[in-house]
Amino acid sequence: MCGIVGYVGIQSASETLLEGLRHLEYRGYDSAGIATVWEGELHCVRAKGKLNNLREKLERIEMPARIGIGHTRWATHGKPEECNAHPHRDQTNRVAVVQNGIIENYRELKQELQAKGYTFVSETDTEVIPHLITNLLDQMQSANELVDYTSPLTEAVRRTVNRLEGAFAIAVICKEYPDELVVARQQAPLVIGLAGGEYFCASDVPAILPYTNTVVKLENGEMATLTPLGVAISSFAGDRIIKYPHVLKGNRMTADKQGFRHYMLKEIHEQPDVVRDCLSTYLSSQSKGSPIALGLPDDLFTDLQQVQILACGTSWHASLVGKYLIEQLASLPTTVHYASEYRYAPSPLLPQTLMIGVTQSGETADTLAALEMEHKRRTQRSTEFRPRLLGITNRPESTLAQLVPHLIVTPAGIEMGVAATKTFTAQLMAFYILALDLAARRQTLTPERMEEIVVGLRHIPTQIEQVLYQQSTVIEELSHRFQETQDFIFLGRGINFPIALEGALKLKEISYIHAEGYPAGEMKHGPIALLDAKVPVLTIATPGAVYDKVLSNAQEAKARDAQLIGVAPQDEQTAELFDVLLPIPKVEEILSPILTLLPLQMLAYHIAATRGLDVDQPRNLAKSVTVE
Ligand code: AGP
User: Fold this and answer.
1) Which DSSP category does 188 fall into?
2) First and final C-alpha spacing in the chain
3) Which of 94, 168, 337, 376 has the fewest other C-beta atoms within 10 Å?
4) Over 80: is that where the pLDDT of 297 sits?
5) In the chain, where does the domain assigned CATH 3.60.20.10 lie?
6) Region(s) of the chain under CATH 3.40.50.10490
């Protein structure tokens, strides 16, 4: 995904755009650029790489404009070179465009424009847009076409977006209309910010929040023209739309590192409060009746026969924990699918199914497409197949929120680090409470057992604080030992197997060290051949059904000279077995994942930081993947 911003108002546009882009850099950081209109000319500055490169370039240029657009890119079409950086312009330097998303029919449009004499200088899909707009402006001007209800630029953009196929959000400026910023949205997020005499647009609210918390969200098929005098919204069909702004409530929507070296570290340390917020959001404060306050309607659950979960990446790992919880606590068969796989090989439809889409950003293209497909498949069948869709997301304003009728919002606040940490924990909390809700409805747990689990969950925040406090320095020191390590194995079993997968993913994505998560009992069926003294094996072992078995699996690794790291409660056995023990409080196995996860997050963080890597913006990644 990419980030777009736009500004029209009374301040310096370039500074406002740079500040906005700083808050959107988590969306992509292959290149960045801005374009402004000043004294009847379009000025465009772009730079390959991170935003700092653009900032340095801009320091040498005077840009007093009061209107402009900006972009931070995650490369899809074309390499991360300056020539492919946004904004893109037409060949006469008249129109500039920034875009997030993909124009699927850009090849046909490009051929058509090339046949008309337009030349292309980038490998991107976006470049067709400024050419189309300028072509339409020319046509309208030469035909002396009167557009009495709107400006020519707005009309040219409208006609252009009607020719585009795919998912996109765009912002457009033109040198002939120096006080107009035109934006449009189709399947990619776009929000408009309003502050007296100043108007903003952005892919995400953090870019706008430093200036205003009064916003209007554009829906699919909507566009808007922003001028210093206000905002006019219309549909792609040209109909005027009246919308009312709303005020965003403040929470941890801060893009500030608050003294931490990296966002990721700050976000790891926010987890006790995230769990507290989850508990107060999802649990009732009433002493009588059900403790669950998810507010989901009964008919979502009536006669339910199975749960199917669709997700990608870390959200997929959280869903595996969710499967364990729903099956073990509510006795409901549950499957978890990679959304990217499910799209092309869906399961045969079974009736009375609850489909859950899990995506922290609410924008992951594969997850959204798989859910949409499922909705369509089920709508075409009889009532017992009717779609029952539930979303779990950290972004209530996301595309997912519009797609599904029911939502569990994880109150984790915005996550700036590309590697998910606190949002994963919040997803786990959502699954605990959903599983308890299902268990209560299906009467698979006694009220005493429900209460026991709820009490256990209420202790988690202080236990997280304890682990973070005790282990931060230990793990930081330990990380030096693994700076040059090339392969890491993470073992876990049962509810902690997904945590092993998540630990391996964290290490891979930010430290670039090869890591594999494996179910501990499966080691002997192959991967054990990888082990020698150079391979650290991190084993998660918590007292429960498979505790002794996991410790035996760790023994087997030790017998092959592997360096053994244990994430387990401290006792004689674990102190003796593991070369390094990262102790966690003794809790019931079913409650352990949020605690066993912490040393893994910290280890990944400190290894990456010790290796001098860009923890918050690892290479080749973006916070969410809005392309297939
Ligand atoms: C998390 O650390 C990853 N960067 C990535 O796997 C992520 O979880 C995945 O892309 C799914 O994102 P989503 O939750 O926003 O859908």
Assistant:
1) S
2) 11
3) 376
4) yes
5) 3-248
6) 257-445, 472-628
Whether the CB of 391 sits within 6 Å of ligand 1: no
What's at 223, amino acid-wise?
M
> CA 30, CA 362: separation in Å to the nearest integer?
22
Q: What are the beta bridge partners of residue 5?
A: 70, 202
What is the second-level CATH architecture of the domain 3-248?
4-Layer Sandwich (3.60)
The 10s digit of each residue's pLDDT in 307-349 is 999 999 999 999 999 999 999 999 999 999 999 999 999 999 9
CA 313 to ligand 1 centroid distance, Å: 5
d(CA 228, CA 67): 9
Beta strand 3-8 pairing with 67-73: antiparallel
CA–centroid distance, 12 to ligand 1, in Å, is 35
What would the CATH number be for the domain defined by 472-628?
3.40.50.10490
Rg (CA), the chain: 26
Tell me if 543 sits within 8 A of 591, measured CB to CB. no
Q: With a 6 A CB cut-off, is 313 part of the ligand 1 pocket?
A: yes
Q: Which of 17, 402, 11 is nearest to 201 (CA)?
A: 17
DSSP 187: B
Other C-beta atoms lying within 10 Å of the C-beta of residue 142: 8
Question: Is the CB of residue 353 less than 8 Å from the CB of residue 305?
Answer: yes
- φ, ψ of residue 85 to 5 degrees: the values are -70, 150
Residue 286 has pLDDT above 90, yes or no: no
Q: What is the C-alpha separation between 2 and 350, in angstroms, rounded?
A: 37
Quote the distance between the C-alpha of residue 618 and its chain's center.
14
| Residue 253 identity (one-letter amino acid) | M
Q: Is the CB of 419 under 6 A from ligand 1?
A: yes
3-state helix, strand and coil shares in percent for the chain, rounded to the nearest 5: 40, 25, 35
Quote the Cα angle for 504-505-510, to 5°. 105
Instruction: Give the atom of ligand 1 at the shortest distance from the alpha carbon of 364.
Output: 16
For residues 534 and 514, the answer to whether their CB atoms sit within 8 Å is no
Whether the per-residue pLDDT at 565 is higher than 90: the answer is yes
**Using a 6 Å cutoff on CB, does residue 134 contact ligand 1?**
no
Maximal CA-CA distance, the chain: 88
Phi, psi of 582 (to 5 degrees): -105, 95
If you count them, how many residues does the chain have? 628
d(CA 91, CA 133): 12
Q: Residue 79 catalytic?
A: no
Give Cα separations from 242 to 24, 217, 218 (angstroms).
28, 12, 11
Average per-residue pLDDT in the chain?
A: 93
CA dihedral 522, 524, 529, 532 (to 10 degrees): 100
Query: What span, in angstroms and rounded, lies between the C-alpha atoms of 610 and 232?
Result: 51
Q: Within a 13 Å sphere around the CA of 258, how many CA atoms are in the beta-carbon half?
A: 13
Q: Could you tell me how far CA 470 lies from the centroid of its own chain?
A: 30
Distance CA 535, CA 302 (A): 50
Q: Assign domain 257-445 one CATH number from 3.30.420.10, 3.90.226.10, 3.40.50.10490, 3.50.50.60.
A: 3.40.50.10490
Own/partner contacts of 254-263, CB < 8 Å, gap of 24 or more, are: 254/413, 254/414, 255/22, 255/23, 255/206, 255/209, 255/414, 255/416, 261/609, 262/417, 262/605, 262/609, 262/615, 262/616, 263/415, 263/416, 263/417, 263/616
Q: How far is the CA of 96 from the centre of ligand 1 (A)?
A: 31
H-type alpha helices, 86-234: 106-115, 128-142, 152-161
Q: Give me the residues paired with residue 184 across strands.
A: 170, 223
Question: What tokens does 276 get?
Answer: 């507290």
Residues 183 and 171: their CA atoms lie apart, in Å, by 4
